[in-house]
Amino acid sequence: MGSATREALAQSKKALADLERVDTATVAEIFAAGRVVGDSGQLRSLLADPSADASVKATIVDRVFARSLGAQTLGLLKDVVSARWSNQTDLLGGIEELGLRAAALSAGTDARLEAQLFEFGETVSSDAELELALGSKLGSQDAKLALVDKLLTGKGSPEIVEIVKHLVLQPRGRRIGELLRHAASVVADQGDFMVATVSSARPLAAAQLERLEKGLAAQYGRALRLNQVVDPAVIGGLRVQVGDDVIDGSIASRLGELRLQLAG
Question: Which one, of 185, 2, 205, lies nearest residue 85 by Cα?
Fold first, then answer.
C-alpha cells in the first residue's frame, strides 16, 4: 500500500466515523457504489485521477449517484474520491473497506460479525460445490445472490448478508476464502481487536482457550478473539494464525521438519 493510499484511507475512515448514523442501508449503499465504480473503467479513471480537482470529482459523484444514494452516503463517497489514492485498484479497495467498517459499526461488537464471517468461510471451504457456485466466473450474479440469501438470510445478521453479496459480486480476482478472511480482519480492526485462528486435533477446553487468548493478547498488545478449527491432520499441539503471523507448534509441522532434515 502506497503512502498516498494510506493517507486517503485514514481520511476516509475519519469521514465514516463522523457520520451521525450507520445502518444496514448505509452498508448496502457503500457496497453498491463500489460496484458501480468497479464496473466502469472510465469512472474509475476519473475518480482516481490524482491530478483532477476534488470539486470536479464531487460533481461527477453527484451526476452518477445523486438518485441512488442517500445524502449521508453521497457525502461520504465525495470525501473518499476527494482523497489522493495511489491507483484505481486502491480506490476500489478503499470503498470496499469502508463498506466493511460500516458493517461492523452497524452490527456492533456483540453481533460477533467476524465470527459469523469465519463460520461461513468454514462452511464454504468444506464444500467444493458451494465454493465453486459462489466463486465461479461463469456463474450468474442472480444465482449467486439467490444462493447467499438461501444460506444466510434469517440465519446471520443483515450485515453479513450485505458483505457476502458484495464479495461474490465484486471479487476482484480473489478466491472466496481469501475474501472472507480479509473481511473478518477489517471488521475486527474496526472493533479494535485482532482475530486468531487456532487449529488443533481435538477441541480445546474453555480454560485452555482463555489462557491462550490472554497470552496472545499480551504478546500482541491488543484485545484478541479466537476462532477454533478442529483438524485431525494437526495430530497434536497447536497451529495459531494471527493475521500474517503463523505460530506452528503442531506435531505435523515437527514431523515435516524432521522429514526435511532426513532428506537433506
Answer: 2
